[in-house]
Design brief:
8-stranded parallel beta barrel, alpha/beta, 8% strand, 8 strands
Length: 485
């Protein structure tokens, strides 16, 4: 009996987000779309994550138009997106009406598979997005964020997966965002999930630690149905394991993917040429970074940390900050380090080191986290930190979004005639400053950037007056120096 493994390729989303700062333009995706569409992939991950924000912020592209163009160019291949549950594509929780309209429009414009996750694995923060995606006819891939800590275990991951299955998930994804999932734990986890949940299991990892391909092989042996890879020219490093390598390894066996290596080779050659257009955005990290195994910090965050410390002339404190991150993570109850928790932990660790005193300065994000406004922490929060932030108060016990007023009509009124469509209203609701500036540039016909602006973008910055990306130091600027509010 054969069990062909299916492949999701990330070349249109996570691969360039991990390696090229999410800068790949739609014009470099469309020419290869026909060949991608003929491969026979399970899906192409092409939307979501940071791509939505980056389209408007850096590329002067409408993310909805990108989705529509890709849908037209990929008639035979499901398009998959990454959705941060109640966070949608941002760094905070949004009201239910905005989540509902976003998911509905995403399906209408071309998304087939919604990979839905929550940074804390708090199922309450995933349930509404799952319900809406199911209602509008999308495939709901409910996701477990994999991490290692004293409060995480195979039993806990399996129980979370059971909860997600009960909520109507069509498949389950193990999301290993930092490359921590080793081959033998992967075998055990997939084996348990296949035995106890009657749903397809997909595995996602990054190659940062160097274990990716081996992890996939053991997961496949245990029964994994689908794995995420990236075409070789945008694979490895902080991206995914290479597609062609896995296809060749499985060729002729019971898990043969059936994919054409010749066609994949043509696609790889194309992306090799395209990657050269984005040299200035290369992360510069080594092919394998052992720091991810020691500190569990995702590779993209490591490169960001170096850059931000360099700007503050504090690059010599890099290893101090890196060593502080696991301590802050423990104080916060061991959250998995993925957006937005990775930024929250990284910012606080930086403050603790640069001020010379732990929690002398507490970021607003940490305060919100301790109050329960991001969800239920996986483990207990440090009593000392809890006391600093809350005093004698207790964290909220309800789903955080239950405290939010509807926001869609307010967004519609605020953006007014600058919005040309319902999609524009949702873009504004998610990223008010970025979207408004994008709409204003669009109204002027996207004037060519000045030489100064072009030089700034080429150097990895942004045009004068543009909204900077969320980063450790951007978050730092919002710090409150009091003990809590």
């Amino acid at each position: 009996m054969t069990q062909p493994v299916r492949i999701t390729d990330t070349c249109l989303r996570d691969a360039h987000q991990s390696l090229l700062a999410t800068r790949m333009r739609t014009e470099h995706m469309l020419p290869i779309a026909e060949k991608l569409d003929h491969v026979g992939y399970h899906s192409l991950e092409a939307w979501g994550g940071a791509t939505f924000d980056s389209c408007m912020r850096f590329l002067d592209e409408d993310p909805w138009e990108r989705l529509r163009q890709l849908r037209k160019a990929l008639p035979n291949t499901p398009i998959q997106m990454l959705l941060r549950g109640q966070n949608i594509l941002g760094y905070r929780h949004y009201p239910d009406d905005i989540v509902e309209r976003f998911v509905t429009l995403a399906k209408k414009n071309g998304v087939d598979i919604f990979r839905i996750f929550d940074a804390l694995n708090d199922v309450r923060n995933m349930a509404w997005a799952m319900q809406v995606a199911k209602r509008v006819g999308g495939h709901v891939q409910a996701t477990i964020c994999y991490t290692i800590s004293p409060v995480h275990s195979l039993d806990a991951f399996v129980e979370t997966a059971k909860e997600l299955a009960a909520l109507g998930a069509d498949s389950i994804c193990i999301k290993d965002m930092a490359g921590l999932l080793a081959p033998y734990p992967a075998f055990e986890l997939v084996k348990r999930l296949k035995a106890e949940i009657d749903l397809p299991i997909q595995v996602h990892t990054h190659y940062t630690s160097g274990m990716g391909t081996a992890t996939y092989l053991k997961a496949i042996e245990a029964g994994a149905d689908i794995v995420d890879t990236a075409i070789s020219s945008v694979a490895l490093g902080t991206s995914q394991p290479p597609t062609e390598t896995l296809v060749y390894i499985l060729q002729g066996g019971e898990h043969d993917t059936g994919l054409d290596l010749g066609l994949l080779s043509e696609i790889a050659a194309y992306f090799a040429r395209v990657r050269g257009e984005y040299r200035q955005f290369e992360s510069g990290l080594p092919g394998v970074d052992v720091n991810v195994l020691m500190y569990q910090v995702p590779g993209g965050m490591l490169s960001n940390l170096v850059s931000q410390l360099r700007q503050q002339k504090a690059e010599d404190r890099y290893h101090d900050v890196l060593a502080e991150m696991p301590r802050v993570r423990a104080d916060l109850g061991y959250p998995p380090l993925v957006t937005p928790t990775s930024q929250i932990v990284g910012t606080q660790a930086t403050f603790n080191v640069l001020t010379g005193e732990r929690y002398k300065v507490i970021s607003e994000e940490v305060k919100s986290y301790v109050r329960g406004l991001y969800g239920r922490p996986p483990g207990p929060i440090s009593p000392e930190l809890k006391k600093l932030v809350l005093g004698d108060e207790e964290p909220i016990a309800v789903r955080p979004a239950d405290l939010l007023e509807p926001g869609l009509e307010k967004a519609r009124a605020e953006i007014g005639e600058l919005a040309r469509s319902e999609e524009d209203v949702v873009s504004y609701a998610l990223f008010p400053t970025v979207a408004r500036e994008f709409f204003q540039r669009r109204a002027k016909g996207f004037p060519a950037p000045t030489k100064q602006a072009a030089a700034a973008v080429a150097a990895g910055g942004q045009a004068p007056g543009a909204q900077p990306p969320v980063s450790l130091w951007k978050l730092a600027s919002r710090v409150g120096r009091g003990l809590g509010r």
